[in-house]
Amino acid sequence: MKTPEKTRCESCIIRQFNALKAFSKEELKVISDNKITKSYKKGEQIFKEGEKLNGVFCVRDGASKLSKLSENGKHQIVKIAKKGEILGQRSVVADEQTNLSATALNDTSMCYIPKQLIIDKINENPEFTRNLLKIMASDLRESDNFIVNMSQHNVKQRIAEALLYLDTNFGTDDEGFLAVNLSREDLANVVGTATESCIRLIAELKKEGFISAKGKKTKILDKRALEDMINGF
User: Fold this and answer.
1) What is the pLDDT of residues 153-209, one digit of tens each?
2) Total domain count for the chain?
3) Which of the listed residues 99, 115, 142 is the one where a domain comes to its end?
4) Where would I find the Cyclic nucleotide-binding domain in this sequence (predicted)?
């Protein structure tokens, strides 16, 4: 982990995507004076399940996976966090150990904000508190949808959903390949299947002309076909 050049919260547009948008310039100055900017290499762990956090992480750049270790020793990826999202807020607010692990999917930059600052602002700034509650409610809604999809969609449909999610939330590179590419193991851990099954179903999607691949990179060729498959058409 490296410590990159520090940026000021007052001039950072990323805060518009999270609860920090409720802060005044004076409050942002306090946050900026006390935060730590950190960078993580691909595959580097940001925090571990069961860890007691002393602050939250605001994603400046890159993507990270949030995963839960199951009883059989497999990691279930429950979310891919993108730029602007805050990690660890539930643990900090509830004053409990983290329920998930966070790992960088690519080179990632984070702003680490001390816990006490967050707690102080929850007590002092009602708008910030409301924004924080809205984000937590949204996370719960995503969890509900995830459970429904796992029970009602087959593995191939869930792979299609995961690919479309990556396309929608992270976009593509200059060649049209997904900007964030999950390993086959990570993709399997997102959709809840064995890596071997994931590889076989990816090959089927390629054969059907829905996607293409170049090395570890994936390109969606027919979004409509993937959407129709998800909807059972």
Assistant:
1) 899 999 999 999 999 989 999 999 999 989 999 999 999 899 999 999 999 999 999
2) 2
3) 142
4) 19-139
3-class DSSP assignment, residue 29? helix
Query: In 70-178, which ranges are E strands?
Result: 75-81, 86-87, 101-104, 108-114
Is position 125 within any domain? yes
Q: Is 93 exposed, middle or buried (0-12, 13-18, 19+ CB in 10 A)?
A: middle
What CATH number has the domain bearing residue 220? 1.10.10.10
In a domain, 148, yes or no: no
Give the CB-side neighbour count of residue 223, counting CA atoms within 13 A.
7
pTM higher than 0.85: no
Q: Would you call 195 helix, strand, or coil by DSSP?
A: helix
Residues paired with residue 208 on neighbouring β-strands, in sequence order: none
Judging by DSSP bridges, how do beta strands 55-61 and 86-87 pair with one another?
antiparallel
User: Tokens 């170049």 belong to which residue?
Assistant: 214
Q: How far apart are CA 131 and CA 21, in angstroms?
A: 9
